[in-house]
Amino acid sequence: MAKQEKALAAQSEVGVAVSTGVGAIPRRRGGVWAEPIQDVVLRVAGVLALVLVWWILSLIFPPTLVPKPMETFGEVAAIITTGDFFYEMGATLRRVLVGFGIAMVVAIPLGIVMGTLRNLESFFEPPVILGLTMPGLIWAVLMIMFFGLTETSAYAAVAITICPMLAISIWQGTKSIDKDLVDMSKAFHAGPWSKVMDVIIPQLISHILAAIRYGLGLAWKVVVVVEMFGFSNGVGYQVVRGFNIFSMKAVLAWAITFLVVMIVIEFGFIGWLERTVTAWRPKIEAWRR
Amino acid sequence: MAYVRVEKAVKYFPREDGTDMLVLDAVSFETKEYGITCLLGPSGCGKSTLLNIITGLEHLEQGRAEIVSNHRDAGKDAPRLGYVFQDPRLLNWKRVENNLIFALKGMGIPRQEWDERIHKYLSLVGLLEFRKQFPLYLSGGMRQRVGLARGLVIEPEVLLMDEPYSKLDHLTARKLREYTLEICARLKQTALLVTHDVEEAAYMGDRTVILSPRPARITDILDNPLPPLERDVDDTRFIQFKKKLLQSVMRLVKEEV
Ligand SMILES: Nc1ncnc2c1ncn2[C@@H]1O[C@H](COP(=O)(O)OP(=O)(O)OP(=O)(O)O)[C@@H](O)[C@H]1O
Ligand SMILES: [Mg+2]
User: Fold this and answer.
1) ipTM score here?
2) What's the structural domain count of chain A?
3) Is residue B150 part of a domain?
């Protein structure tokens, strides 16, 4: 009985969304798995198409310019089996995550403060906009000149490059906070910590998730640049090494492994995070066709 | 028991052009010792303002508004007030029970009482089985009931409700009025209900305070001859009382027009 009511309630939610124009909820044929499977097939086909284009190019150009896909994948396998991959990727990941963490810890309070206190908004707006405009490459150079070739400069370059973007995203999100809920929290005497954690941050969650996506994307780019400047490990260093011995195969193999890890984090980890923190929202997929 | 006493309350709001706008003009009334008192008046007359004054969100230019309680040294602690808003105003990312906990925590209720209270008040509003559900999976009426449970769970001296049914459809609103009336009667809860609906006031109010259009003055204070659980919208005694309220309100409107 409880289940039924739940389903009814959920359906009425869907009904609201649907009434904005699309019509009845489409009944899927072929069971629950038909759509996901079709999805996977399409994705795999997309990847295969890319490889095909690559293979055609490799027939046209000499292997020093465009190596054969299979040989490159062989190189990828070699990188992974020798264990180099885990060492280098670990170093790069650590730099990304530490820098990202620092940026997040600074950006969330900064964004909230900018969105809620008018004076501080005016005060912080110029530096944040300035920081956003500055190319990551320049931050990387500045940080290396300042901290030398240390881990600190990698962390700092990543953090400072993405921080403004995160802060802006959260700042904008703060403006759409529901004032009625804030009033409600006052009426029930919620403390400042509870107000932030229970009322404000949950309303920012989609902005924070978007910020994480963009932020990680930027972080990868910056960290590779920093590593190219003379670090002795990390994916960026390996790419430069491949460049120095003019091995297109090595450069591509490292780029591919790097891409795969990024994609796993993007779709696997962030996707999972998103599903977990938005479980309270009924899924309305009917409007997407 | 606790009740609300307002004496010669005068309230101005500043207009854009610098002059003052009189909103409350010497408003005086008392609620009953327990039961529901309705504030009935046209839109914009200052009902919400009056609530805000009682809760201390707005201050008075003259007069006083207080919550008189024999449990509490009135000078010392702030009164414990429960709110039910026009829309449910739930934290949609928290399960039903966590929405109640949010209020319990805010009001400083000891943790060991939480579970029992949640159980009691969710049962009262008939939502015990939805304790672990997220609000957006509930219907509008059920959400409003969660809002009611949240207002009650802190066991307020006075429960304040500002047009809590005006956003619901007719049937749901009717059902919810029944619910609220029954619960408040059972708990002997003192409550203040703001409304501009005469029938709602006749049905819900043990006492109805009728306010004039702005600036609000008290034009009538009528006590309901029927006890809460004997009000039946088809009963002649109910209809008579409703007429009496309506006449009182219409007289004002005529003066206005
Ligand atoms: N903070 C404020 N500053 C200036 N004027 C205000 C303020 N709050 C309310 N008013 C004015 O005071 C009057 C009474 O407002 P109030 O919200 O109390 O009316 P109400 O009786 O609750 O109306 P409704 O039934 O539409 O909710 C209105 O004319 C409103 O414009
Ligand atoms: Mg109002």
Assistant:
1) 0.88
2) 1
3) yes
